[in-house]
Design goal:
Strand order of the largest sheet: 1-2-4-3
CATH architecture: 3-Layer(aba) Sandwich
Strand content: 15-25%
Shape: elongated
Number of strands: 4
Oligomer: single chain
CATH superfamily: Vaccinia Virus protein VP39
Structural class: alpha+beta
Number of domains: 1
Helix content: 25-40%
Order of helices and strands: HEHEHHEHHHE
Largest sheet: 4 strands, mixed
CATH class: Alpha Beta
Distance between the termini: 31 Å
Length: 178
């Protein structure tokens, strides 16, 4: 992803660095904005990461988090057919309030929270094919038998319901460094 970003046109003042979220290779107060998209459920030590983000942000800097939360799960229709994947997400995804409280305890103030919808796929058939690729990390976490059983049931459902909603939601949080 970094190579793809570096290959795109960007101002000469933009600099790309690689590091771990628990130990960001930036000086204190070096960043105006930290943007995280769909990564919180992959982080092991959330409090350490939030402290590190707080450290690298300038005073009044912003943390923007785009994340599926537990409250969004019902809009992901595929999960009806993969109960083991749903259980994974219920364990690892933050709740809205949980994320706000974690940010607050790391000296961030909530500026805004908004739920945004997006299209998973233009057609039911494309939705099935996306799921067949195990596009979502929760599907990578379940065993092959559960995956294939769920995929077959989802395929059947989509063939009978080609107009099913193909929309999903993510929450976007904006926090200020206090």
């Amino acid at each position: 992803m970094r190579a793809a970003a570096e290959a795109k046109p960007h101002p000469p003042t933009v600099r790309f660095v690689q590091g771990l979220a628990e130990s960001i290779p930036l000086d204190d107060g070096a960043a105006d904005l930290v943007f995280m998209s769909q990564v919180l459920h992959h982080i092991v030590d959330g409090p350490t990461v939030l402290r590190e983000i707080h450290r690298v942000l300038k005073s009044g800097g912003d943390l923007c988090v785009r994340q599926t939360t537990r409250e969004n799960l019902d809009c992901y229709i595929y999960q009806r057919f993969f109960p083991a994947a749903r259980a994974v997400d219920e364990r690892r995804l933050p709740s809205r309030n949980g994320l706000v409280e974690a940010a607050k305890s790391s000296q961030f103030r909530t500026v805004a929270i908004e739920t945004l919808g997006y299209e998973i796929a233009p057609t039911a058939a494309e939705y099935v094919e996306k799921i067949a690729l195990r596009t979502y990390s929760d599907l990578e976490c379940i065993d092959d038998d559960a995956f294939h059983e769920g995929l077959n049931a989802f395929r059947e459902y989509c063939s009978v319901h080609p107009d099913l909603p193909k929309l999903a939601e993510n929450d976007v949080f904006i926090f200020d460094k206090i």
